[in-house]
Specification:
The protein is mostly beta strands. It contains no helices and eleven strands. The strands form two sheets. Strands 2, 4, 5, 6, 9, 10 and 11 form a seven-stranded mixed β-sheet that branches. A four-stranded antiparallel β-sheet has the order 1-3-8-7, with no helix packed on it. A hairpin with a 2-residue loop joins strand 9 (91-101) and strand 10 (104-109).
């Protein structure tokens, strides 16, 4: 059983910053991609930032230059540093990981953490 647990969400004023973290635990052999998604009310879930084990990163155009994804492979954790936050960044943020276990490869999601940007 693999679990992804996000933390760090909250309420912040426009222009503010937050850092999210996501820790994977369980009988993990190997993790490939670890990514951040978000879903705003009434909208589809979208990819925000992606990272490979080798350190390659990609970002949605809407967050480029403001968000930074990083990961610590030793502790199976990724982070999302969010700066210059805008009201349109308000959403539930989810962690996603491609994980190899003794049962093979599968995709896992965290429970989500709410980020609200409001004055």
């Amino acid at each position: 059983q693999v679990q992804l647990v996000e933390s760090g969400g909250g309420v912040v004023q426009p222009g503010g910053s937050l850092i999210l973290s996501c820790a994977a635990s369980g009988r993990i052999f190997h993790i490939n991609a670890m990514d951040w998604y978000r879903q705003a009310p009434g909208k589809e879930r979208e990819l925000v930032a992606a990272s490979t084990r080798a350190g390659t990163t990609n970002y949605a155009d809407s967050v480029k230059g403001r968000f930074t994804i990083s990961r610590d492979n030793a502790i199976n954790t990724i982070y999302l540093q969010m700066n210059s936050l805008k009201p349109e960044d308000t959403a539930v943020y989810y962690c996603n990981a491609g994980v190899y276990t003794a049962r093979g490869f599968d995709n896992y999601w965290g429970q989500g953490t709410q980020v609200t940007v409001s004055s």
